[in-house]
Amino acid sequence: MMEDPLSGELKPVDFAAIRDYIPELNRFKLHLAWRSLSVPIDSSNCKPQTWRQIVELISSNYDDYDGFVVLHGTDTMSFTASALSFMLENLTKPVILTGSQLPLGRLRTDGKENLITAIEIAGTRQEDGRSLNEVCIFFEDQLFRGNRTFKYNTEDFDAFDSPNYPNLANAGIHIHYKKQYFLPKPSQSMVVRKNMDSNLAVLTFFPGITQNYAESVAETPGVRAIILHTYGSGNVPDFDWLERILMAAKSKGVILVNVSQCKQGFVEQGRYATSAVLSRCKVWSAGDMTLEATITKLMYLIGAQVPPETLEFAFHDSLRGERTTFTSLV
After folding, report:
1. Among 205, 219, 181, which residue's Cα sits nearest to residue 259?
2. H or E element: which one contains 128?
3. What is the dihedral of CA 220, 221, 224, 227, to 10 degrees?
4. What is the pLDDT of residue 253?
5. Is there a contact between 163 and 153 (Cβ–Cβ < 8 Å)?
6. Domains in the chain, start-ordered, CATH in brackets?
7. CA 151 to CA 154: how far, in whole Å?
8. What single-letter DSSP state applies at residue 186?
9. Kind of pairing, strands 68-71 and 255-260?
């Protein structure tokens, strides 16, 4: 967002005037071009149609530029970064999302430094040929794999974290890249996947959860998948009615997925007796994926009409580096 210096009103960024707010952009020895959605929106209004517009802008300009920077509101930035990672298959160029905690136009805005560094990263070619070819978030001196992030802070400038995967670069006086954590460069051409099915539901567990609440979520008309937002390492209460609800949903072909409410660590179904019900109901484990990555990955897989016999395998596979295989960090 951009703050009008006279009225103080917050409004979507005016790209035509952005060089007035950030004159340092004129010092780049890069060809910079700006594109905008037809109607800029607050990120709280983001939806799959927004993601389709972004990937269409990237794909239509893909051959003309070395990298792309997406200015985005922080509230749904991790959802968008995760979604774009799945929608841009075989990506061979950096796509960097960034934004700010303080709007452009404020004296202490973090937006200027975030944007300048994101552009530098997007326009840098690695000397050893190891390219950055994935969707990332750059924020407060750190470059993260986008589908590993979540927004954890509304007060400080370091708004994002990636608890289950190392950051890809630190930006100080110099930008130090951690190339050993980059995704390998794909050998095939980039393909855009636009179909995202958002017929999902999230069932969040809390002490005192009622049968009526769980049934209302599970019986949502048209729901294709239900994400169980569970305690600890993937635990739920061992109520008889809960197993009946989950079994009924499973019998209708609804996908059930287990995501922990804990930000760090991973789901271990069966570690405690209370999670045995999930194994009996054939619930899939999200491993160490974030809620944002789990939601958008399911949207992508269901929207792509992956055959039922391979859908579970595709979900448990690491398609864009979104989940740990427990050998990749060795």
Report:
1. 205
2. none
3. -10
4. 96
5. no
6. 2-192 (3.40.50.1170), 200-316 (3.40.50.40)
7. 8
8. P
9. unpaired
How much is the pTM? Answer: 0.91
Which tokens sit at 12? Answer: 């979507």
- For Cα atoms 234, 155, 47, give the angle at the middle one, nearest 5 degrees: 60
User: Which amino acid is residue 15, in one-letter code?
Assistant: F
CA 129 vs CA 62, 182, 203, 230, 232: distances in Å:
19, 12, 44, 42, 41
Sign of the alpha-carbon torsion through 199, 255, 44, 113 = negative
Tell which residue, 78, 70, 65, 116, has the closest CA to residue 95.
70
Length of the chain (residues): 330
Percentage with pLDDT > 70 across the chain = 90
pLDDT grade, residue 16 (50/70/90)? low
What mean pLDDT is predicted for residues 108-116?
84
Measured distance CA(15)–CA(22) in Å, rounded? 11
**Whether the Cβ atoms of residue 193 and residue 90 lie closer than 8 Å to each other:** no
Distance (Å) of CA 66 to CA 24, 69, 92, 279: 20, 11, 9, 46
Residue 2 and residue 297: Cα distance in Å, rounded? 31
Q: pLDDT digits over 66-106, tens only? A: 999 999 999 999 999 999 999 999 999 999 999 988 877 66
Per-residue pLDDT band at 259 (split at 50, 70, 90)? very high
Q: How confident is the model at residue 329 (pLDDT cuts 50, 70, 90)?
A: very low
The answer to whether 83 and 196 have CB atoms below 8 angstroms apart is: yes
| Most confident range, picked from 16-20, 197-201, 267-271 | 197-201
Neighbours of 69 (CB within 10 A): 23
Output the CA–CA distances (angstroms, integers) from residue 186 to 93, 96, 189, 211, 310, in the order listed: 10, 18, 8, 47, 22
In contact, 86 and 183? CB cutoff 8 Å: no
How many Å apart are CA 107 and CA 136, to the nearest integer?
27
